[in-house]
Design goal:
Blueprint: E1 2-7, H1 11-24, E2 34-40, E3 44-47, H2 53-57, H3 59-62, E4 69-70, H4 73-81, E5 87-91, H5 96-99, H6 102-107, E6 111-113, H7 118-121, H8 124-133, E7 142-143, H9 154-163, E8 168-174, H10 177-186, H11 195-204, H12 213-216, H13 219-231, H14 257-263, H15 268-280, E9 283-292, E10 299-306, E11 318-325, E12 332-337, H16 341-359
Parallel strand pairs: 1-2, 1-5, 5-6, 6-7
Antiparallel strand pairs: 2-3, 3-4, 8-9, 8-11, 9-10, 11-12
Helix pairs in contact: 1-16, 10-11
Binding site for NADP(+): 8-13
Binding site for L-homoserine: 209
Protein name: Homoserine dehydrogenase
Length: 368
């Protein structure tokens, strides 16, 4: 039995709970049992080895409702570490302070699964410490597939390439579902919508952050490039990567998202000119990140791609990642939905299953 506890069960965590409850009712559960034993949000927490499926179906009211105790993450972790079965702690937050606690969790023998990019893209020293504490075959493990590409097998593919000794030449991709959607609709032959109209539709459809500048500044893509580069063995970080911020400079400091959206049409001419230049050369615009495995050209930018390039034919909000290696001179390409609660939860769940297969049959969690 692998016990699972979730920190920050919001949209993604809720989708994960739904998938785990469905799994508990499937024939697969008997051969590889996985059970939710704890939930904690910013206000309440609950730990039990006997949550009923009916309670988890309505976890907001039945588990984290009036009967739950005040949230205390330290106490939560300590109680989990005392359980006899192996425990996978799932961090569904985007918190820096929570990610900084990963080394402590690992030292208590807790496995970690997370879509939180902060522990792997912030301070390089934290990344190395997490890596070192989870590197043993018998000790606790860390899986973070969902930090890049949600449920797409991006990091697992990269890990396999690295572990088998392949030489990474370049990793290039469209890593943002938001920016994929924007440029797949704005920069295509025959498209009539202005850039601001595309951003407005994307925001109304829920593709962007509440403030679209948080997507357009490129930092989310920079974090993903940093993670890929570090997994590939490079010492890179968001503080050293060149990142092209496509938010017009005059709008970077406006006070609200509403003001930003109201003034964005003033800059439609700028984006129209860039697009027309690209189309005139037989190309389209795509916002990409690149890991240069051979030099110092890693970065994030708005770039042109010929109409016959795989990046140019992308649809909707899909991600696409191309690995160019010594063994794959013609790139190995992964493409599909790179955002959304269900697919992100799938990526987390897949990592949980990996831990269950390795440790779930043991009576106690492995300690360092």
């Amino acid at each position: 039995m692998l016990s699972v506890a979730i920190v920050g069960p919001g949209l993604v965590g809720g989708a994960l709970i739904e998938q785990l409850v469905a799994y508990s009712k499937s024939p697969r559960f008997s051969s590889l049992p996985i059970a939710i034993v704890g939930l904690i949000n910013s206000k309440k927490m609950a730990i039990s080895t006997s949550f009923a499926s009916a309670d988890l179906d309505s976890w907001k009211d039945n588990v984290l409702g009036s009967s739950a105790v005040p949230a205390d993450l330290t106490s939560f972790v300590n109680q989990l570490s005392a359980l006899p079965a192996p425990v996978a702690l799932v961090d569904c937050t985007s918190s820096d302070s929570v990610a900084e606690q990963y080394p402590e969790w690992l030292s208590k023998g807790l496995h970690i699964v997370t879509p939180n990019k902060k522990g792997f893209s912030n301070d390089y020293g934290l990344f190395k410490k997490i890596q070192q504490l989870s590197s043993g075959s018998e000790g606790p493990s860390v899986y973070h597939e969902a930090t890049v590409g949600a449920g797409l097998p991006v990091l697992s593919t990269l890990n396999d390439l690295v572990r088998t000794g392949d030489k990474i030449i370049k990793i290039e991709g469209i890593f943002s579902g938001t920016l994929s959607y924007l440029f797949n609709n704005f920069s295509v032959p025959g498209a009539a919508s202005s850039f601001s109209e595309c951003v407005s539709v994307a925001k109304a459809s829920g593709y962007t952050e509440p403030d679209p500048r948080d997507d357009l500044n490129g930092m989310d893509v920079a974090r993903k490039v940093t993670i890929l580069g570090r997994v590939a063995g490079l010492d890179i970080g968001t503080d050293t990567l060149p990142v092209e911020n496509i938010v017009p400079e005059a709008l970077r400091s406006v006070a609200t998202a509403d003001e930003f959206m109201s003034r964005l049409p003033e800059f439609d001419g700028h984006f129209k000119e860039l697009n027309e230049q690209a189309l005139a050369s037989g190309s389209v615009l795509r916002y990409v990140g690149m890991v240069d495995g051979q030099g110092n050209q890693s970065g994030v930018k708005l770039a042109r791609y010929a109409l016959d390039h795989p990046f140019a034919s992308l649809k909707g909000s899909d991600n696409i990642i191309a690995f160019t290696t010594e063994r794959f001179p013609n790139p190995l390409i992964i493409q599909g939905a790179g955002a959304g609660a269900a697919v992100t939860a799938f990526g987390i769940f897949s990592d949980i299953i990996k831990i269950a297969e390795r440790f779930g049959t043991r009576s106690t969690a492995a300690k360092i």
